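assembly run, all chains below
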Amino acid sequence: MSAIIPSREPSTPRIIKAEGEQPIFAPGDRVRITKRFPVGHYRVPSYLRGRTGSVEKVIEPAGIDNEEEGFGRNAGTKRHYYRVAIPLSELWPGYAGSYRDALHVEIFETWLERN
Amino acid sequence: MSTHTHDDHHRPVDADAPVGYYEVMETAVRELLIGKQLIGPEEIRRQIEVLDSRTPALGAQVVVKAWLDPKFRARLLTDGRAACEELGISFYDDTRLIVLENTDKVHNLIVCTLCSCYPRPVLGLPPDWYKLKPFRARAVIEPRAVLAEFGTHIPDDIEIRVSDSTAMVRYLVLPLRPEGTEAYTEAQLAALVTRDTMIGVVQATIPRTQRTSL
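ok done. output:
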């Protein structure tokens, strides 16, 4: 029995990345930091629950979900952290300072949703 | 010799206060780990030596190299950890490092609102005020007021970036090189790069006594 061998360019193997290997968000994306219940010991500070911001950059390399690990569960697949920027004037009503002043914080992918 | 006595800072450490909850917890966990032969006293002592070997002098070395070597500066801003590793600085805690560059338009400040995340591999242990709640809370709410209390007045047309270090990433501020230091040696430059300049609560400046003309 002869198999049909598809013709392909030599020396250009196509790599298919696994789930989670490639970042879901890109710089410039508007994102919302989700809320999680119960309120507990997370690596996302509570003052950022439900806040919106923009992705400044994808932090490489991907890392494990340290909250899963922190609660004694094997975090398995790695995902990305993102550096997210939020203007301080949006965080704090009446903020006295430049409108350009901003908070920058690293947030794990599972905490973010598209806004 | 001045008239001060050594009464205060030569007093022995008296551990007379009642032992606290976390102290008991730490002792219990440590004794269990040793009892179960998972780690030994030698490993605990060695880790303390690792921590003690990290001081702001390492961070100053990194900053001065970035000031003098544009190619190193570019690598440092691209991947802080890899550039520090070039200088032999290991990341024993497996954290990433993002180096934040101060410019004439941007001033950076680092904080950890959750606890005391700090670029320990390059700066050593954080100062006590960095771990206390007033700094941690106020740095993200009113950074300009906090900076003013450190004597740092940032004009409104300069953007303040507060980086809250919460998980895998640590931050190091690359301060602006002060003007008038073109002829400085590496050692002279390093003396200007204090711990606080790399946290971002102050800017690198030439001490008043060294200024030649004003």
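Strands of chain A lie at 30-33, 52-63, 79-87, 102-108, 112-114.

The helical segments of chain A are 66-70, 88-91.

not gonna interpret more than that til we talk
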